Model the fold of this input.
Amino acid sequence: MISELFMPYVKGGVERRYWEIARRLAKRHEIHEFTMRLPDTPAEETIEGISIHRTGYADRLYDTSGRRRIRPALEFARGLFKRLRQERRRFDVVDCSAFPFFPCYPAKKFSSRQRTPLIITFHEVWSEYWREYFGNWAMAQTGRIIERSIVRLPDLIVSVSKLTSGLLVNNLGADSKRIVHVPNGVDLSMFKTGPHAKESKTVLYVGRLVPSKRVDLIIKALAAVKETHSEVRLHVIGDGPELPSLKSLADRLGLASNVLFLGTLPTYQEVADRMTASTLFVMPSIREGFGMVVLEAMAASTPVIIARSKMNAALELVDHESTGLIVEPGNPDAIAEAMVRLLSDDKLYQRLARNGRSLAESLTWDDVASNLERVYTKLTASSRDSAA
Done:
């Protein structure tokens, strides 16, 4: 497996996917993870049976505006090329994360040299988003060209959402016959089941504090909700360049005592515990490749509110008024109305909590790992048959 970042030192959604799958497959297979070396991390390490190889040192992934720096991705790709060139072990399959794209090229060269099938896993498709992200036509055009070239490298593409599968075909020209949908999952053991105490009127957000996540909308909505529910609180877990402006917004709206910025919590169990204790979970982002925190909130029996958007794959998880509430994007009044509904209508609240948990129970990491294992087995068998 090849992913730019890996747990336990980085705890994002992509990192959690590779971690949860790898540690399950390592119980019955030999699993190697090639990843970037961050400060204070060993070059070689074995965790829960996973052999971890780190290369391409990087000390700062984001610039001051919260955008990903290009140099760390290039350094990782360069380091990966050198590391794989020295590798003498034989592998049955190579699974490489598409983002940040550059490492896919040495992965392809390595798999070709070994005559081993290559899988590239797409967590989302940027396509037209490149221009919005960089604000620079030349950079955006380069990004689009690189992204389009990546879909032609692997023997098989794994997509984590139906949205991403469609975008791969329609926007990047991928062959639909070479795409397999294997979604993300959830570890139910991290979330308490049965009756448990919810904190009264506590709204939760978990994620990076960047403009695209639109955390400001939750704070603005909270100001409206406070008029009828004065004790309502918002807990924000995560960090990012928007933190100062979000704190300032809360102060200006008179919400300093209602909004608590918790930063990045030391362990994901602490995040799971906060999800379990919270009354509501809100994610107003209009762009999500999957929305793993939405699924995790459902596992915690915490009703979710998300935004309607053609680029929000979390919509595949939420059935309006059944497993969550869907609101119009960019509208704090709509978020406030949804929050008030759930704080006031216990019958609706319990239905969403119950159905959300039921959905989460159908998407466990055990099932995801087994599904991907079958994909690996079928692909390697087909590769051997072709070589014979």
